[in-house]
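wait is this the right file?? whatever heres the structure
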């Protein structure tokens, strides 16, 4: 025994599997040849290959499935069969060259506050982009253009798998969401995360840095780094380990903290929830509404906000009502919590994927 921990293996998201299946099905539809494997581009610029589980051409449709490998992440969709059905559609039928639809096992959005409009299949924006890119690449490879295709994504037993998730609570009915922002599933491990935080801070201090960027994800990290322009070593990805990272920053001798996150995470920070993953403290919209009431929102409006489906919807309602003052107040309360936890000066940056930094306190 060496005492070394086994390195956790990464896997692929449902969105990446759907995109790979869609490309393989498109290639078979356009060429008539079945494949064993297919390679697709990822949003990060990387390319990855997928082995096909099944590939069938029948009645002008090609159905391809891929078995999802989530690596060492404890994901309920690990081993799920992700299916893409591709067929040619009439020109102008949808107004798009590639139409993406949800089939059996893929949920439908029934409540506002999610990145997909109500009534549409719960296939998130990045997976949709990956599917379009993969199918477009298939057309380029076979030198065929301007053939409108319909891509239907399905998940075998998706309705049953969805019962093990929070989908129903979020208003996603009838199946799973097709998710992923990078295409890669990184294993969720407390020790892996805290070890990474510790190692990152050690490197930053070793290079002489006295300030650090704590971010909850790549989008929030990149948005703040574009403003601050600090050395790369100042960037510490803390994920959901908010309280741990704040305390570690002081322990490692930093003098200033820049805390960057999206609305749901900043809201949890303002509420004093130390571990911001849903498994360790699901955000109750009632808590958020009460916080906003105490921040100056009138009672009737707060009660109305308590009916919101998600934190995202709360943010959207506040923006629509012109209540930037309340959004700013939440950031201020998050700042106070972070300063109390760390004992250090803290600046909070609120980030959205569409606009970048929208508030700074």
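ok assuming it is, sequence goes like this
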């Amino acid at each position: 025994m060496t005492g070394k921990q086994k390195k956790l293996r990464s896997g692929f998201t449902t969105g990446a599997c759907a995109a790979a299946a869609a490309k393989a099905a498109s290639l078979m539809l356009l060429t008539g040849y079945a494949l064993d494997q297919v390679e697709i581009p990822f949003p990060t610029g990387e390319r990855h290959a997928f082995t096909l589980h099944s590939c069938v051409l029948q009645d002008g449709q090609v159905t391809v499935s891929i078995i999802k490998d989530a690596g060492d992440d404890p994901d309920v969709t690990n081993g799920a069969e992700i299916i893409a059905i591709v067929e040619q559609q009439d020109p102008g039928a949808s107004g798009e060259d590639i139409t993406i639809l949800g089939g059996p096992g893929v949920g439908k959005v029934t409540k506002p506050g999610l990145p997909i409009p109500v009534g549409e299949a719960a296939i998130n924006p990045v997976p949709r982009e990956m599917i379009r890119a993969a199918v477009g690449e298939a057309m380029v490879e076979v030198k065929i253009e301007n053939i409108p295709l319909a891509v239907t994504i399905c998940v075998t037993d998706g309705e049953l798998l969805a019962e093990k998730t929070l989908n129903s609570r979020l208003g996603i009915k009838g199946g799973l969401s097709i998710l992923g922002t990078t295409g890669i599933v990184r294993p969720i491990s407390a020790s892996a995360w805290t070890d990474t935080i510790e190692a990152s801070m050690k490197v930053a201090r070793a290079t002489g840095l006295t300030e650090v960027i704590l971010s909850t994800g790549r989008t929030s990290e990149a948005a703040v780094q574009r403003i601050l322009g600090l050395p790369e070593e100042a960037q510490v990805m803390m994920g959901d380990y908010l309280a741990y990272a704040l305390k570690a920053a002081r322990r490692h001798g930093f003098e200033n903290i820049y805390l960057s996150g999206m609305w749901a995470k900043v809201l949890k920070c303002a509420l004093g929830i130390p571990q911001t993953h849903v498994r360790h403290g699901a955000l109750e919209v009632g808590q958020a509404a009460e916080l906003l009431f105490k921040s100056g929102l009138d009672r009737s409006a707060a009660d109305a906000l308590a009916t919101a489906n998600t934190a995202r919807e709360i943010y959207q309602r506040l923006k629509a009502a012109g209540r930037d003052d309340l959004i700013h107040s939440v950031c201020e309360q998050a700042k106070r919590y972070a300063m109390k936890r760390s004992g250090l000066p803290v600046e909070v940056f609120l980030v959205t994927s569409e606009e970048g930094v929208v508030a700074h306190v």
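Confidence is low (pLDDT under 50) at residues 278-282. so i think its the right one actually
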